[in-house]
Every structure is written in C-alpha cells, then in structure tokens.
Amino acid sequence: GYKFHMNDINASIGMSNLRVIKPILEQQKSNGQFFDKALTGISGLTLLERKSGYESSYWVYTILVDNRDSFMKMMSSNGIGCSRVHDRNDKHPIFSQYKEELSGTTKACESMICLPCGWWLDQNDLERIASTVNKGDWICSDMNLT
Predict the structure, then answer these.
(1) Which CA distances in Å does 97 have to 17, 55, 62, 101?
(2) Other CB atoms closer than 10 Å to residue 63's CB: what's the count?
(3) Taking phi first (over 0 means left), then psi (-120 to 50 degrees means alpha), and beta for anything else, what does residue 25 get?
C-alpha cells in the first residue's frame, strides 16, 4: 500500500555504485575481521557468533555489552559514534498486536550496540576504536567504581 519503489534517480545512483561495490565490501569485511580479533576476550563484551557458510557485509559491527548506556557515553566522550541501530519491531504501534514474549530477543536488544565498520575507516581509526573499547572505562562506570 505505500508504493516504496525506487525512483529513477536512486536507481541511477545504485547502478553507478555497482562499479565500485567490490572494493568497498572487501574493505568493510577486512575492518570487521580486524574487530573480530581486536575485541576478543574483553570482559563485559560479547562478540556475535560468525557461522561458517555465512558472510557478513559488516555494514556495522554489532556487539553485545553488559553496560550499554555507559559504553555509549564513553564512546561518545571519545568522539566515536556508536548506536543501537536494531530494535524489536513490536515496539512500534503498528506491530504491537503481534508482540510476543521473546526473552532472548529482549536481552539482545538491551545490550546490542553497533560500532562503525565502514570502508572509510583507515587503520588508525580501527585501532583507535579498538583501544578505546579495550580500556574498559565503561564496564563499572554506572556503579562509580572506575
């Protein structure tokens, strides 16, 4: 009912971008693989499982953190954008009639954060993001223990 088709201008932009999409996706995947290694084993942070046979485009790098709000504040105070990007659809009034008890989904949405992972990040950007996360300043900050 909403007629959400692509107009000619958007289609032209999309077609033009197909010429350069391969190196862009390769860079994003490389950035994501960097984070897979650099963020492993950090207390209070869980990396998503990467199943064999599936390939992520790494348009964002999604992680689960125990203390999401403190994590977001700490990243912002260090000039690094991150966001909640994904949430349950049944929070929107149009889908509320379909709300179900999905404890795993609820728990994931409460701790999910997406870090930038795009092709425009260079090695210095990646290392700065990883080292900021690795500091752990966000882990106990809600309890005033840091």
Answers:
(1) 39, 34, 28, 12
(2) 21
(3) alpha
pLDDT, one tens digit per residue, over 59-111 is 999 999 998 999 999 999 999 999 988 888 888 888 888 888 888 888 888 89
pLDDT tens per residue across span 113-145: 999 999 999 999 999 999 999 987 666 544 433
Inter-residue contact 134 to 78 (CB < 8 Å): no
Report the SS3 class of residue 67.
coil
Q: Which residues pair with 46 in a beta bridge?
A: 64
Q: Could you tell me the CA-to-CA distances from 19 to 8, 42, 97, 104, 122 in Å, in that order?
A: 18, 38, 43, 40, 21
Task: Give me the pLDDT at residue 144, please.
Answer: 38
Structure token pair of residue 82:
């991150």
* CA–CA dist 100, 106 (Å, integer): 10
Predicted TM-score (pTM) of the model is 0.80
Q: Amino acid identity of 65?
A: V
What sign does the dihedral 9-10-13-15 (CA atoms) show?
A: negative
Q: What pLDDT, on a 0 to 100 scale, did the predictor assign at position 142?
A: 45
